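job 3f2a | input accepted
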Amino acid sequence: MRFSQLYAPTLKEAPSDADLVSIKLLIRGGFVRKVAAGVYTYLPLGFRVLKKIEEIVRQEMNAIGSQEILMPIIQPAELWHETGRWDDYGPEMMKLQDRHERFFTLGPTHEEIITHILRNELKSYKQLPVSLYQIAMKYRDEIRPRFGLMRSREFLMKDAYSFHDSWESLDEAYKKFYSAYSKILERLGLDYLVVEADSGAIGGNESHEFNVLAKYGESTLLYCDCGYAASDEKAEYLFKPIVQNRLPAELELVSTPQSRTVEEVTAFLGVSSREIIKSLIYSGRNGYVMVLIRGDEELNESKLKASMNDQTLTMATPQQVFELLKVPVGFVGPVGLPNGIEIVADLSIKGLKNAVGGALKEGFHYRGILPERDFKIGKWLDLKMVKTGDACPKCGKSLKSAKGIEVGHIFKLGTKYSDKMEGSVTDAQGNAISYVMGCYGWGVSRTIGAIVEQLHDKDGMIWPLEAAPFDIIVTAVNTKDEEIMKRSVEIYELLKKWGYDVLLDDRETSPGMKFKDADLIGIPVRVTLGKKLAEGIVEIKSRTEEKPVMVSVNDGYGPIVEEVERLFARYNPKSVLKPEDE
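job 3f2a | predicted structure (582 res):
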């Protein structure tokens, strides 16, 4: 490809609303253009990278025997009502009506569709296991589309589904997908961490996330040297109850005017946030529930939804709370709570004596609260957001944390969908059994952002070999010099014959602009023909090395091919940025 014919409009500056370095570089490098919040067009360079990543994913899926299909993006609501996910999935689901007023969704995922298809096809256990995948666009109405390609409303995803007659068969497939996902990341040369994860609205009893490590990753990962690793939505900890060497006090109503938040109450009463019981009201499919957690801890909503088996749970609005309890949010508490509202409590308040909490009366709190004496708790649960320094649930050592970008997620769905949608086969004895399912997602377009977020420097992107838009750029410094152009074209054609994907920079622009664009775009190897060509010298430089190598072409172009092969063999795309550089 000649650069003069390539549509790659590079920019000196990124748009002011670009929030992460990855989307800044992708826009500046002419890879993508923003159409609307969370919606992007892939220009030729971006599309080339997208297709290369897609092909890596396809190869690894085919290698484990998964077969490619293509399902519709638009899905009828009736299928989602069968599983109950029409409401469970939440406001991120893009819903629409056709001219006949039938409801549809632009598919955020395809569990219902694939289960519907195979329940009409699979009859006997002898047809199992089956593994099918597709690579297609998905749609989610993100409340705050951000982080460029990593949290978009429209994105390219590989989703695979496996069907089995036993859990043992599912376990085997799960291991294969786990291995395949690891190979994808290893082929891309990325540093990554696999963690236990929350299954969310997808469901299932076990799932793992594959995260690319990055300074500004959107996910917080907790891990321990013993091998335990989990996302912050899933992470557990070794609970140790508080031991307070004090006698329980009598319940005391105290005035706390204008003190609504934990910070305001602790300052006014002169107590620690560890003595505060935060009372939060949530609304779900079964009505309202009060959730209690210690004042110095943060509630993990993912754990709450999983523990209550209700993905529709959302925090009640101040207006809803006032209509329910006739008191502003800041004075809500468990003592004297009306019947019909279940109380669930995080383990952090176990052992508290003489705690402080809202009194269900505006301007007042209670001192001396003793859980179980002053109110009854329906369920004790682990609901806190685990953080750095908490005790590892496996070995008790302090947990460490890292930032990551989720690119892959695998789930053991079990019979969640086959039970609800009546998907079954007959076993060896002729009995109908629900088939056991697995689900395996990979964010193809998201991987582009993850790569750039991890692999870049102050000059631009540093693509891994298998994802780079081009392998080599041949830079003709002066296109008006006939000898330079003649030799540049010859080398360009030679490298193509050797199987390399080559870009010839034949633009009539300054050498500085050509070098800057080559670094910005991040092509692994640059072959430069400039003034030194008069001495028979061509410069060859790896994107990951500081200095070019001088190669003589007086006796032919063989040394160029040799040097290119040597550079490719030692190519090591790693970010060299220091914190202050960004």
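job 3f2a | The chain has three domains: 9-236+400-453, 252-381, 470-575.
job 3f2a | closed
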